[in-house]
Amino acid sequence: MTRPRIKDLAQAAGVSVATVNRVLAGAENVRQATRVQVQEAAAQIGFYGLGAIQSRVAASRPRLRLGVLLLQPYRSFYQLLAAHLREAAPLRPEAEIELRIEFLEDLSPEHTAARARALGETCQALALVTPVHPEISRAVEDIRARGVPVFAYVSPLGSPGELPYIGLDNWKVGRACAWGIDHLCRPGGRVAMLMGNPRFRCQEMNEAGFRSYFRENGARFVLMEPQLTFESSAVAEEIVADLLRDPDLTGIYVAGGGIAGAIRALRDHPRRGEVRLIGYQLMDTTRAGLLDGTLTLLIGSPLRQMTAALLEAMTRAAQGETTNLGAVLPFDLMTRETL
After folding, report:
1. pLDDT tens per residue, range 201-241
2. Which of 102, 108, 143, 215 is most buried when burial is the number of CB atoms within 10 A of its CB?
3. Can you tell me the distance from the alpha carbon of 204 to that of 198, in angstroms, rounded to the nearest whole number?
């Protein structure tokens, strides 16, 4: 069998022979994305010069420092996000990435704004998980004014299109959870909703989607006013323990932080199985809750895809690209039977 030649590689990569030759020679006038494209095609067709192409691509990769600001380090979800980012960053072909991840113990707007500004001074692009607040918005404006791209991660910031956003369609998430209540709970009962902090735009949209479903599909349930957990599992546990005293309670939707506490409150209660619990994110606690029947339905984020989308977008933005940087990704609906 004849081994692939340069013209075969050019055809497989969708570029010209001249471009392949420039990649092989390590020429500077080739876009990094094109180098990666040629490298991937070389691997696919078994091109004999793959090693040389890989060396050229590695040598030409820009070095970028990217910052990510996450919430409390003791929360499993944010540790999962950080682990996925740390795992994926060294594997990105477009750039050599130095990743700076910081967790916020103090969630006050003033502290969040200060830490965002500090990261923005040392990084070439910044991603934030944060609520919407004037103090934080001013910090974001200051960072962007210095030419540092800022991304909203997990929860949108500002109006749609104002900042690139990587995450879920939270309005659809809310409607999907309402569908779960509608189809899994006893009609005519009361439904409770727990929110961590309504200043998180994702939670605000969760509530809007949740309520819109019932407006469109009939009021078969009594929707209670949301109760705030302040992103605390201990607070959520107290709220759910109190809610379970209501004999008409049929469903609980945890739209923000606190799902672990809600699971603890319901797990050993006599009404487990009668009161349906719906929440977020596949972690050790929620997996166990699904498996033992405490948790009925779970919305899961595709963390690997979210991580890849964020790193790709931040890398592109750090190198001057300004369009098509956001990504709204599909979510998973999980039950015990899907695990």
Report:
1. 999 999 999 999 999 987 789 999 999 999 999 999 999 99
2. 143
3. 5
Burial of 18 by CB count in 10 Å (0-12 exposed, 13-18 middle, 19+ buried)?
exposed
Nearest CA to 174 among 199, 202, 217, 210? Answer: 210
Q: Angle, nearest 10°, between helix axes 284-291 and 259-267?
A: 30
Q: Which tokens hold the place of 183? A: 């189809």
Contact 243, 181 (CB under 8 A): no
Q: Give the bridge partners for 227, in sequence order.
A: 194
Place of tokens 């990769």: 61
Quote the longest CA-to-CA distance of the chain. 76
Q: Which residue in this structure is represented by tokens 């379970």?
A: 244
Could you report the per-residue pLDDT of 66-93, keeping only the tens digit for each? 999 999 999 999 999 999 999 999 888 7
How many Å apart are CA 268 and CA 255, to the nearest integer?
Answer: 22
Strand-pair category, 222-223 with 190-195: parallel
What's at 172, amino acid-wise?
A: K
Domains of the chain (ranges plus CATH)? 6-60 (no CATH), 63-168+303-329 (3.40.50.2300), 170-300 (3.40.50.2300)
Specify whether the backbone of 224 is left (phi greater than 0), alpha (psi in -120 to 50) or beta: beta
Residues, the chain: 339
* Partners of 102 in beta bridges: 69
For the chain, the first-to-last Cα distance in angstroms comes to 45
Residue 153 near residue 309, CB atoms below 8 Å: no
